[in-house]
């Protein structure tokens, strides 16, 4: 279930409460991704973000893997399903900064405004997905929820909902999308041709057996 609204402002913790929360958090961590509280009250830690992108991304590299199409020194390709990235951030980093850091880590050339960060949580045997405000702080949410990703996880998606706003994409991006679609169409045609060729061979073999002189 998707809740397409921003999270209500939360109440921040005092330094003493943060210290207590971090100690509890670190005692429950199983993957060694602990949080650290600095003397100035700012704490650092790790968050994992699952990439759920329906459209290809454009990267400034010619070394990309997977289904891709090239345009000058840029490459458009689909990220693998279920791709998860780990970021080391601080309590001062906002959602917008986390999105920009993710795109920079993947060398993504797309405009960060095309993407949004969501939180996914489980309540009463149901899964809720809520878009986060650009002003929120993911590490704070991670600290309050604890280290268990089944209680809270982060997801990166395209910002647009409903109809795709193609005018937001550049000409090279659109040209890359067309190349990818052409390639996928040809691949599907080849698969269909092989499938029906196999059916035809089996039918002809069966017909040959039926009409074989006794």
TrEMBL record:
Its subcellular locations are: Cytoplasm, Cytoskeleton
Q: Which GO terms describe its cellular component?
A: cytoplasm; microtubule
What the entry lists under SMART domains is as follows: RA
Question: Which Pfam families does this chain map to?
Answer: Nore1-SARAH, RA
Gene3D superfamilies given for it? 1.20.5.110, Phosphatidylinositol 3-kinase Catalytic Subunit, Chain A, domain 1
Annotated SARAH domain residues: 163-210
User: Start and end of every Ras-associating domain?
Assistant: 71-161
Keyword Cytoplasm attached: yes
Annotated GO biological process:
signal transduction
Concerning SUPFAM superfamilies, the annotation shows: Ubiquitin-like
Q: Which branch of life, at top level?
A: Eukaryota
Task: Name a GO molecular-function annotation.
Answer: zinc ion binding
**PROSITE patterns documented for this protein:** RA, SARAH
Question: Keyword annotations for this protein?
Answer: Cytoplasm, Cytoskeleton, Metal-binding, Microtubule, Phosphoprotein, Zinc, Zinc-finger
InterPro entries (UniProt xref): RA_dom, RASSF1-6, SARAH_dom, Ubiquitin-like_domsf
From the Swiss-Prot or TrEMBL record, give the protein name.
Ras association domain-containing protein 3
* Organism for this UniProt entry: Pelecanus crispus
Q: What is the lineage of its organism?
A: Eukaryota, Metazoa, Chordata, Craniata, Vertebrata
């Amino acid at each position: 279930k998707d809740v397409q609204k921003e999270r209500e402002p939360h109440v921040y913790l005092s330094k003493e409460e943060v210290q207590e929360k971090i100690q509890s958090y670190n005692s429950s961590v199983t993957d060694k991704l602990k949080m650290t509280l600095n003397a100035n009250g700012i704490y650092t830690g790790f968050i994992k973000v699952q990439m759920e992108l329906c459209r290809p991304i454009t990267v400034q590299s010619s070394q990309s893997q997977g289904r891709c199409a090239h345009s000058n020194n840029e490459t458009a390709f689909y990220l693998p399903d279920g791709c998860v990235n780990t970021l080391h951030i601080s309590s001062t980093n906002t959602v917008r900064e986390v999105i920009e850091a993710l795109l920079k880590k993947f060398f993504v050339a797309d405009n960060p405004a095309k993407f949004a960060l969501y939180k996914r949580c489980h309540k009463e045997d149901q899964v809720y997905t809520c878009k986060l405000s650009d002003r929120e702080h993911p590490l704070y949410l991670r600290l309050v929820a604890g280290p268990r990703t089944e209680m809270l996880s982060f997801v990166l998606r395209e910002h647009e909902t409903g109809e795709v706003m193609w005018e937001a994409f550049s000409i090279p991006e659109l040209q890359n999308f067309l190349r990818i679609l052409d390639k996928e169409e040809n691949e599907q045609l080849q698969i269909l041709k092989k499938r029906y060729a196999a059916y035809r061979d089996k039918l002809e073999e069966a017909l040959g057996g039926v009409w074989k002189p006794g």
